[in-house]
Amino acid sequence: MFESLEPYLAIFRIGIKDNLAYKTDFALTSVFRLAGSLVMLLVWTAIYLASHATSIGGFTLTAIYAYFFLINAVHYVIYSNIDEFIQDDVQSGSVASSLIKPIRYPLNLLFRTLSENALLIVVASLPLFAIVAAFYPLNLNAESIALLLAVVVIGNIVVMSLDFLIGSLSIYMTNIYGIMSVFWGVVSLLSGGIIPLSLFSQQTQSILFMLPFQLLAYTPASILLGTISYAQAIHALFFGAAWAAGLSVFAYFWWERSVKKVMSAGG
Amino acid sequence: MTSNVRRSIEFFLVSQYYEWKSFLVYRAQAVLWFLNSSLSLVFTFVTISVIYTISSGIAGWSYYQLLLLASLTNIVMGLMWYIVNVGQLTSDMRWGRTDPLMSKPYGTFTLFLSWYGWPASIAESISSLVLLVYAASNLGVPTLQLALYVPLVVLGSFALISFLMMLSVLSYHLFKGGSFMWQFLNLMQTMGQYPLSIYGIGVQLVFSLVVPLGLASYYPSNVLLGRSSAEYYLAFIAVALAVSYVSYKLFYRLMRYYTSGGG
To answer: Is A267 part of a structural domain of the chain?
Structure first.
């Protein structure tokens, strides 16, 4: 079992080295990503000051600060870059050589994206969690941690299945940057990455909570903040698990069909 | 001098023609990119609408005024991407892809401006223009203010683009890469959608003199909203020209030490 994982662990190690090849560039990218949270903090501070309110939509100002830090922290824990990897492999032609290697291509992609996840968790997520924990009393007990882990696992299955499906389209279309950008742009709004979902109208919320995207930002952040009940979190998990199962089965059959159409576009 | 400028403009326009032709080769992709570029309009509208539904918003800024500022920022950023995709420029320098281009008999600044644009971004500017007209019509902006505003945006945008061109070459010299530029520009766009005054005086100065995003959106929007005087207008022109000149000169100074990254 462990012996068979060896090539994938090598891919994981190479992925980390690759990402750290341009260290300053990587560090600056991480800093600017994190600075996005700070901008939203200043915007919301201005809104709270102008409104003279202690709470808006169930969020105190401190809770809003914590929310925007947490969704950034969670973003790198529930993260995938599989679509871009597939597109790069198709465009460079390396998808053909990857397919004849004695390793499974989907697992190759999984370990490549996990190497990015690991790095981003260390340089971005953990510092953000530490910052939030220093100024906000996070809801950290056995139940919430168990729920959070379940959300992280199911959220990753959802995001990786979707990424895999979108990435597979590059076999047919070669260039899928447009699709990727539109899709993930919309997801950032639907997941609560721009505005907490609880600030939308009740009707909009009822639709958004039936989609799997809430697991990518709003639900994990709200579990940690304690702003949703366990019953709500379990409800979200139930929907998320159903979506994850459906999407991963669909991604499997879609890949089985798409792989037959692979053509090498380069060398 | 005049003939040089004319030659550069002609080269820029011809390059635009070919850039559009090559962009439209993959039509389905082109449609998706247009759609993607228009999304910022949706995000801006939803975010600001939610903010003003659940609160009284930002002090001193009404709903339509903030919509106007945010749409101005999106217009400027769309234009910026249309003219020059700075992250791509740095990446191409790293791999030596700019070398054949630089052998052409035009200034490097003109060559990069002509070849490193992103046509789909114009959709962001156009869709944001719709939002701008909607906000301006609700605010009842007089025609005179609109006429005063347009030259400022052009000047401010030129200052911003010159600065970003200089930054991309600097980034190549310092880090041999520029992936951070995309995140940096995203951050700038988010910041520019809200009044600079909420970030404090330090950030306001940085975004006016060092990174001239304020020159391209926030300060011109004050003119459009009738919050300016003649001194303000003239000071703006002086600062925008100074930033453009310094960035342009620095760009060429840095290019003097350019060595190809590969080939």
So the answer is: no
